Structures are given as C-alpha cells and as structure tokens.
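[Amino acid chain]
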Amino acid sequence: MKPFIAVPIGDPAGVGPEITVMTVANKDVFEVANVVVVGDKKMMEKTIEICGVDLKVNVINEPEEGIYDEKTLNLIDLDNVDMDTFEYGTVQAMCGKAAFEYIEKSIELANARKVAAVATTPINKEALKAAHIDFIGHTEIFGALTNTEDPLTMFEVRGMRVFFLSRHVSLRQACDMVKKDRIIDYVKRCTEVLRQLGVEDGTMAIAGFNPHSGEHGLFGWEEVNEVFPAIEELKEMGYKVAGPIGADSVFHQALQGRYNSVLSLYHDQGHIATKTLDFERTIAITGGMPILRTSVDHGTAFDIAGKNIVSPVSMIEAVLLAAKYAPNFVK
C-alpha cells in the first residue's frame, strides 16, 4: 500500500505548481507514493499545459477518492486563485493567502492521518506578509498548526543527515549560542527525531566549531569550555555521541557511514556541506512534530516561474524521502 503524500502547491506565482506537476508525472514517484495535490484547479490545468505533461486533473474531497494512475493528478481544489488578476513572478497578497491555505489544508489532512506526510513547495515571505498572514515561513506554520513549540530542521542528502544548533541568526549570535546546555538539549531532541524516522542505531557526531576543533584553546575556547563538557555529560546519560570532530572532515565521515547524523554548530556550516555535495537533492525534514514534513530547499524562483525551465529534482526527492519515512508515522 503506497502512502498518501500531500503536496501543497506553494505560492502560485512561483515555480511550485510546475515542480508539483512534474513530480506527479515522475515514474519513480508514482511507484512509491500516492500524491494528493492541494491547490487550485485553474492553476493546475494551466501548469499542465505549460509543462506539456500528459496528466488530467481529478478533483477529490478526500485522498481515498483519488484515481492513482500515471495519467491523473488528484487535486483537492481550494479554488482560491483569480486567473484574471494573477501574474507569474510577482508578490501578490492573493497568492500569499492561497499558499497559506494550501499548507493549512495539507496539515489538516496529516493531523487527521488521512495522509502520511506533507512534502512542501516554496512560498514567498513577502506574499505572506502582504496577505497579513502572521507567519514568516513553513516551519512556523507547521509548528503552530501541530502544536509543536520548536520544530527541528534536519537536512538529508545521499543518506547523510545534518542538524543545526542555530538557524537564521548572525554569525556573531551563533558564536554566543554554542553553549553546553543548548548542545545537550539539541542532542536529546535530535535523537528523538531520529527515532521518529526509525533511525535507532549509530552515533551522532558533534562538529567542531573552531578550526581543528580549537586545538585545546589555541584557536578558541568554545570546544574546551562548552562542547567537550556537553559531550561528556551526554555520554554519561547514555547518548551515543562523538566529537567534537573537525568540520573539515566530519561531514565526509558521515557520508561514508561512520555516523548516523551530524550536529552542525551553526547554520552555514551544515548548509555548505550538504548543498555542495548535491544541491538539488538536499532535502529538509521538519522534525519533532506529530506529523512528517519534507521540503525542497529552494525558493519560489519568481524569475523563471511559468516558463517550464525549472528543475523538479528537488521536489521529486522530497516526495521520495517522505515516502521512505512515512511508514514510521502511520503505525
């Protein structure tokens, strides 16, 4: 039984509708998932025409009503795009509102266990603001609508998993956030996310913060004062952790299978490692929630929207990854 995966089409003015259509038409996706698109019928029919794919829209109310074959795009139609005023590649309040409603409906389906996961397409923060939507992005929306206080972000690419001790803060602020208690808290929570995904075995590596992990204070004291003490305390508590391991080698070692995951000590440290390895196949998983969410890690690409030149690889990978982990969320 293939899992149902909800795909909200994102901001209609961006590339979300196109990568959705191309993903539904992908043979690898069809073999492992029943995709339930949440969007607007008029928008999807226009997008099918633009992309030149052999699909027909089938409007449904519930995932079980769908016709899941290689020629059908099963759509929950929210009918919320006015094509007379719609424009590709521009910030529009209508599109920000529509994007939020697609996500909201998808989460509703996942909360009710009518779909096993949600794989999201890009939204635009300015469009959300123009629509007076009081969220800055997907993570905050998912957190609020699943009653999750602080969801965690994990990247996965070619089997390598990376967590982040800090996200969108300045590098100066990130330095101040490398604290023993924070590291301990994150390792505990990241370990729980791995368990949610069915990853029980293996060791989590803690990346070094300074060059050569500080060389015992020669290049900085964060490792000596904060990271080492955190790791020792975690080991005493029974957690399988290792490090700190120099950031110039830890990601390679994780890719080789030595570690089941890496805790990156600041945003760009982990982002650079994963995206340099394979930009299009770096997929974000929002963890610590009662539902599974995967996502592309690129934006709305307004400059190429509606031109049938966007690559669907990242969206295809997001759905494949959702299907991979979905059984752990439908037990």
